[in-house]
Amino acid sequence: MDESVRLFLECASNWLSITLSHLNDFIESGSRLVARWNEESKFVYPLFLSLLAAAIFWFAFNLLPFSIKWRKYRPIAEYDIWQVEQKMSLVLAEFLQMVPYRPTVFQNKFRSGAVTETQIRIIIQNKCLSDAWMYDADVPGELISIGHDMRRKALEAERLIDKTLVLQEYIKSKEIILLEKTRQCLKRFQVEEQIIDNPYTKIGRRNLAPLVNNLDGFSVAVYDLYKILHETRGILFRYTGLEIEQQFRVAKALHLYYTDQFSHFVKFYRKLRRKYNFKAFYHLYIIAMIRRMSLYPPILLFEDYLEGKDRPTHFDRSLLQLYKESDEFRLILENNYPAEDIQYQMEADESERNLERYFLMNNLTIYNYFRTKDTRMPEQRWDALEKLLR
Length: 390
Known about the structure:
This protein has 390 residues and is mainly alpha-helical.
C-alpha cells in the first residue's frame, strides 16, 4: 500500500475514534442531565414525556394517515371543482347567446374578467324565460327563450356542488366558501317551471303580466355569477394535477393569456410543448412573448416556425391576430402567404365585427324600448359597449 494512503487511513481512523469518543461523552453527560432533571422535577419532565408521546401518536395515527388520504382524494376533489366550474360556464353561456345554441363571440372578453355589469345587462336584453313570455309584439327584435335550460343547468351545477362537498375534508376553506357562494348565486336562476311557462298573475278578474318581459331583471345575478366564475378560475387553474386533461390544459392556457398573465402563459406554454407536445395557440405564444419582452426574439422564433413542418398551410384566423400585432409580422406574413388569402380573412373578421356591432346595437334598442315602460331603468350609452368589440 502506498505510504500516503496508509497515513491518510491512519489519520481518518484516529479522527473517527476521537469523534465517537466525544459523542459518547456527550450522550453520557446528556443522560446524567436528564436523570438529574427527572429527580429534581416533579411536573415538567412528566409533562414533556406526555407531550412527546402525544406528538408521536398524532403523527403516526393522524397526520400520516390523513396525508395518505389527501394524496388519494384531493385529485378527486379538484376534478369535481372543475366540473362545477364547467357547469357554471354553461349557465352563463345561456345568457350570452347571439342566436339560439351558438356560442358567444365575446367569450375571450369574458375570459379577461373585465366585462362590466352594464355590458352584461345589454347582452342579455334579447333573452326571455320562454315562448309564453313573448307576448309583446312591439319589442324591436326577436327574443330567445332560455328559461328551462337555465333552470336545468343551474340545478345540475348545484347537485355537483353537493357531490363535491362530500369530500369537504380534502377541500380548502376558501374553496368551500367559494362553493357556497356559487350555490347561493345559482339558486337565483332556479325559477319555478310554473313561472317559466306562465307569465300571467291573476288579480281579481284580470290576468296581469310584467311590462318588461325579457330577462333584464337577471342582470345583477348574471354579473355576480360571472365574477364568481372568474374567481373560481383563478383558484382552479393553480391545480397542476388536472393538467393531464387536454381540455383543462387548453382552458388554463387561454385563461392565462386573456387575463394578461403573459409571463405565466409563456412558461406554461413551454411546459406543454415539452411535456405534451402541445402545438395549439402558437400564435398566442408569440404575441405573449412580444408583450412580455422585446419584438425581435419572437420574430426569429416565428420565422423558424414558418420554415418548419408545423407551418400552417393556409392563412387562418390565428395568423390574422399576428398580422394585426405589428408591421414587422405583417411584412413576414405577406411574404409567406397569398394576398387574396389575407384579404379573405380580413373581410371575414370585419364581417364578424359588424355582426357583433349589430347585435349590441339591436340589444341597446330593445333596452331603450323597455326603458320607456320602466323609468327606473337608467340610460345606457353606446360608448360603454364599444369595448366589447374585438
